[in-house]
Amino acid sequence: MTDSRDINEIHTPVMVDRVVALLRPALQAKDAIYVDATLGMGGHAAAVLRSCPNARLIGFDRDSEAIAIATERLREFGDRVQTVHAVYDEFEERLDDLEVGEVDAVFFDLGVSSLQLDEAERGFSYMQDAPLDMRMNRVEGITAADLLAELSEHELRDLFYRYGDEKLAPRYARAIVAARQQANIETTGALVDILQAATPAAKRNAGHPAKRVFQALRIRVNGELDALESALPQALKRTRLGGRVVVEAYQSLEDRFVKRTFAEETESSAPRDLPFIPENMQPEFQLLTRGAEQAPAAEAELNPRAKPVRLRAVERIRKSPA
Ligand SMILES: C[S@@+](CC[C@H](N)C(=O)[O-])C[C@H]1O[C@@H](n2cnc3c(N)ncnc32)[C@H](O)[C@@H]1O
Question: Does 94 contact ligand 1 (Cβ within 6 A)?
């Protein structure tokens, strides 16, 4: 980070007051454990630790640069903080490594961090020319350029439909396959040019043509949906009675999965015509949010990254014996 100002001034976490208010009731006991599954630059984590002096943090992030920045930002909290360079899909395994059983609160702030978006050379942004990388963990896995070189036309089309909800998916897939026969597509700029040229004139004013394709590539490169589908059930399982799980999602596929999972956990499994609900069919969680909460208008105006956020939260109200 080249900016010499205090990181607390330059980075404002999304809906931070609401996140703290939702997590705080679960973090009052001495040594209550708060897992931040997406530590990023530690903005939410700092606010939670400040507001809950008895809590200690276990913070995961797959990006070693994020871990380094968060570790520095959270230094003032001393041994209340443990940062772990790990993917959140290994939620239970990593807690086992730390000999932690149940936890009191878990927070997921999904997607890429502003740090990752702002670092042009990481290839997440269609606004700046850079190598087409898009890996959150830069030491392993395939890059977006690899995907564009290797996927067939129909695999590219399905990817853009599925993870980008891109209506022009067939056109863009065709254009990419034609272009790569001339030269490998290795930079964000080259991809943007191909997409722009393939966009019909009538659609050129309907937002940036690369937006949804970039989103789809990023989700696939980082296995983002698979990771969430694996991690959220693990987090719910490890949450103790009275514990809370809060999720901020920024795109509809992720939010749909969170909504469905929370609905399953908060509804009784008893057939509707039973006159009473037996204890073992009572839901184990209750919803703390009605529908998805969005950022207040004033926040969304100041911070465009807050605009698409959908926040959902649950609290454990029952725990069946293991
Ligand atoms: C939106 S940012 C979090 C920002 C953070 N709440 C803050 O206040 O600074 C999301 C973070 O999650 C991380 N991340 C994404 N997928 C992950 C995964 N499967 N496992 C661990 N970390 C992941 C990213 O590297 C990124 O740093």
Answer: no
Task: Judge contact between 41 and 115, C-beta under 8 A.
Answer: yes
Q: What percent of the chain has pLDDT over 90?
A: 79
CA 86/CA 38 separation, integer angstroms = 10
Clarify whether residues 172 and 217 are in a common domain: yes
What distance in Å separates the CA atoms of residue 46 and residue 321, rounded to the nearest whole number? 34
Q: 16 with 109, same domain?
A: yes
Q: Which ligand 1 atom is at minimum distance from the Cα of 87?
A: 20
| Cβ atoms of residues 238 and 92 within 8 Å | yes
Q: Are residues 86 and 59 in the same domain?
A: yes
Which atom of ligand 1 is nearest the CA belonging to 38?
12
- C-alpha span between 38 and 63 (Å, rounded): 10
Give the angle 288-306-82 at the CA atoms, nearest 5°: 70
CB 251 near ligand 1, within 6 Å: no
Helix boundaries (H) for the chain: 7-10, 16-23, 43-51, 64-73, 91-97, 114-118, 144-150, 153-164, 169-180, 188-198, 211-221, 224-237, 252-266, 297-302
pLDDT tens readout for residues 203-221: 877 778 899 999 999 999 9
- Which range of 124-128, 192-196, 273-277 scores highest in mean pLDDT? It is 192-196
Distance CA(191)–CA(175), nearest Å, equals: 10
Number of domains into which the chain is organized: 2
